[in-house]
Amino acid sequence: MYVGMQGDRKMGRAWKIIFFSLLWSSCLALEGGMLTPKESRSREIKELNGVWKFRADFSKTRNTGFEQRWFTKRLSESGPVIDMPVPASFNDITQDPRLRDFIGWVWYEKEVWVPQRWTAVDSGQRVVLRVGSAHYNSIAWVNGAPVTQHEGGHLPFEADITRLVQSNPSQPCRITIAVNNTLSLHTLPPGSIQYMSDETKYPAGYFVQNTNFDFFNYAGLHRPVLLYTTPKAYIDDITVTTDFADSTGVVNYVVSIKGSSNPSVTVALSDKEGSVVATASGPAGMLKVVDVNLWWPYLMHENPGYLYSLEVHMTAKSGSSQYEDYYTVPVGIRTVRVTSHQFLINSKPFYFHGVNKHEDSDIRGKGLDWPLIVKDFNLLQWLGANSFRTSHYPYAEEILDMCDRLGIVVIDECPGVGIKDIRSFGNESLTHHLIVMEELVRRDKNRPSVVMWSVANEPSSELAPADYYFKSVITRTKSLDPTRPVTFVSNSNFNRDKGAPYVDVICVNSYFSWYHDPGHLEVIQIQLNTQFEDWYKKYQKPIIQSEYWADVVPGLHSDPPMMFTEEYQKIVLQEYHAVFDRKRKEYVVGELIWNFADFMTAQSTTRVVGNKKGIFSRQRQPKTGAFILRDRYWKLANETRRLAARYP
Ligand code: GCB
């Protein structure tokens, strides 16, 4: 139940009508594709990033915006508005603690001129509003008319607004987006609102949001908002899968077209230099590439991240109109396969030496920020990291584009973090989880960097309903994408974990000498060894150590080592690495440090202005651990490359 949506008593009728009429359109959302907006000969983009008008609904019910229908007029006519940057989380932008910790509806608004060539009724164009990610539940209006609703942060949604912009071309177009960050037992991630009714302790109507995850629940318009055009008949989706045999690459493609029943489709695959290497016609087919350049991970090959370009060209006739659309998708030709003890990329053993990340930084929160993105990739390359997990939600498409180009391998995780309460394993949660996986696969299916889907992080997978739940989510994900392995990240007991039978790779988190036996560095090796042996004996599946490490406050020293000091971090790494080095010769296929950088969390007695397990500070300065890992990762990279050369 959302704050501002608590049933009849508090929920405004206006909001209810909008919600249920939009429910229908949101059910249809997954019928179409979700191609990343791109300019081409037939498509234009207008970015709406910058300063938007903003108002948080501080009313007790958080529902005044709906009762007073703020979307029907300029937001500034509803009351005081402030400037809010987009993309960014709203939490850390002002000095107002009420806004930092705000729960409920916030309202964004931008007025924008839409070019005449888009709005002319005979333009032959569609105009689409696209939101890269808004956390969590969002409703969008154009000139006061509702156009879409979307549940869930971290994944894009869009609405065809052609009719609305064409019906009023002489006025700027007013885009209003309301976003509610309330989490419930059935959202992903789950959360709950707790009302504090004891008025001797709390002000009237006081409530808090409880969550079971360890990062700040940043909210707002986190990724770019834009308008883009397509012709009226257009390329709606493209699915590409790849393979190779000897030196011949194979690209299978399927194109879906909307707006015409008799389109004609041609495709041309070009290499990096722009020379066409294969062509085909028809909405589905296979391309063969002689002397293929495979897509290789960073440091596994001297030419990693090789991308071909698949240009899809559609022509269609509808009545007397002729439409033409172009869309180009990058294609990395590679295969992924898992054996009982190996993770194979292009049939060669791949060892994940990488990190877990967060989308998180000062001021911006989870807002997309290019300097930060490029800095992070520089740090990953400096570190010799060949991979990361998108802990604990899907990252921006802009980030995955970089991974594709640089050869950084990705475990693509959905926002299934903190699924702890047994009530989050019922049908309502499961249905939503299946939709989220479908949205994720639909968005990222063509990315060579994505080699595995992760459907959850540290759920209560020992609970009885976890069996059916994870069987369903994993089976569904595999049917959506039969080409990639599926996992979830566990911290449960190997014997009682109900989801592990369904995964392809065991991903396990452990914090020996930290959360378990804190301060006892001497237990790490024995406990880690036992952990690996237990899981492997039971499942005979490759294992990734998907999280490990310790909080470090740079500048704190102690010898003999004590928790939080620079000396302690070194020993934790040494002890873990000694076991990894033994087990990677058998069935351990990766190690991902927790975490790449310090990050913000909710306030608690165990977090000193956030989680300090970064190998870099939140401002991206290295701690001692970063240098130790750097030595190790470059050595591991050399070994992986040597092994690959020997491997048939
Ligand atoms: C974990 C979680 C991660 C936390 C981390 C920690 O097991 O997966 O989200 O941030 O531990 O530092 O406690």
SSE order and pairing:
Elements: H1 13-27, E1 45-47, E2 50-56, H2 64-67, E3 82-86, H3 97-100, E4 105-112, H4 116-119, E5 125-131, E6 134-135, E7 137-142, E8 145-151, E9 157-160, H5 162-166, E10 173-180, E11 191-195, E12 207-211, E13 220-221, E14 225-231, E15 234-245, E16 248-258, E17 264-270, E18 276-281, E19 284-289, E20 308-318, E21 321-331, E22 336-338, E23 343-345, E24 348-349, E25 352-356, H6 370-383, E26 387-389, H7 397-406, E27 409-413, H8 427-444, E28 450-457, H9 466-480, E29 486-490, E30 506-509, H10 524-539, E31 543-547, H11 566-583, E32 588-593, H12 624-646
Parallel strand pairs: 25-26, 25-32, 26-27, 27-28, 28-29, 29-30, 30-31, 31-32
Antiparallel strand pairs: 1-14, 2-3, 2-4, 4-10, 5-9, 5-14, 6-13, 7-8, 7-10, 11-12, 15-16, 16-19, 17-18, 17-20, 20-21, 22-23, 23-24
Helix pairs in contact: 8-9, 10-11, 11-12
The structure holds (2S,3S,4S,5R)-3,4,5-trihydroxy-6-oxo-oxane-2-carboxylic acid.
Catalytic activity: a beta-D-glucuronoside + H2O = D-glucuronate + an alcohol
Enzyme class: hydrolase
Keywords: Glycosidase, Hydrolase, Lysosome, Signal
